[in-house]
C-alpha cells in the first residue's frame, strides 16, 4: 500500500523539477576568431566576466544579455543581446562582462 502511494508522489516531484528547469539564454565566448580555440558557456543569471574575446555566439532563449566594456557589469551597458534571437561575431569582441537578465 505504501509503495503505491509513493509512486505518484515521486512522479509529481519529477514533473515539477522538469517544468521549472527552463532553457536559458547562452553566451559562448571563444578564445580565437572564427569560433576557434577554447570556449566557455555563460548562462547564469546576473553578472559574469567574459574570459575569452576572440569571437562569440549568443543563443537567445528567453533572457536578454546586457554587454559591458568593464568587468563585473560595471558602468553603462554598451549593447543588449535580444532575448528571442541568436547572434554571433567571428571577429574579436571588446566586451569584458555580461549581465543576463532573468
Automatic annotation (TrEMBL):
<keyword id="KW-0732">Signal</keyword>
<dbReference type="InterPro" id="IPR015791">
    <property type="entry name" value="Antimic/Inh_G_crystallin-like"/>
</dbReference>
<dbReference type="Pfam" id="PF09117">
    <property type="entry name" value="MiAMP1"/>
</dbReference>
<protein>
    <submittedName>
        <fullName>MiAMP1 family antimicrobial peptide</fullName>
    </submittedName>
</protein>
<feature type="signal peptide">
    <location>
        <begin position="1"/>
        <end position="24"/>
    </location>
</feature>
<dbReference type="InterPro" id="IPR015201">
    <property type="entry name" value="Antimicrobial_MiAMP1"/>
</dbReference>
<dbReference type="InterPro" id="IPR011024">
    <property type="entry name" value="G_crystallin-like"/>
</dbReference>
Amino acid at each position: 500500500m505504501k509503495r503505491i502511494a509513493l509512486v505518484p508522489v515521486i512522479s509529481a516531484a519529477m514533473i515539477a523539477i522538469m517544468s521549472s528547469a527552463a532553457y536559458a539564454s547562452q553566451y559562448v565566448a571563444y578564445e580565437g576568431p572564427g569560433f576557434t580555440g577554447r570556449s566557455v558557456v555563460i548562462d547564469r543569471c546576473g553578472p559574469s566576466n567574459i574570459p575569452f574575446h576572440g569571437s562569440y555566439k549568443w543563443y537567445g532563449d528567453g533572457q536578454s544579455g546586457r554587454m559591458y566594456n568593464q568587468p563585473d557589469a560595471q558602468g553603462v551597458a554598451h549593447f543588449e543581446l535580444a532575448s528571442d534571437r541568436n547572434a554571433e561575431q567571428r571577429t574579436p569582441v571588446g566586451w569584458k562582462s555580461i549581465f543576463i537578465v532573468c
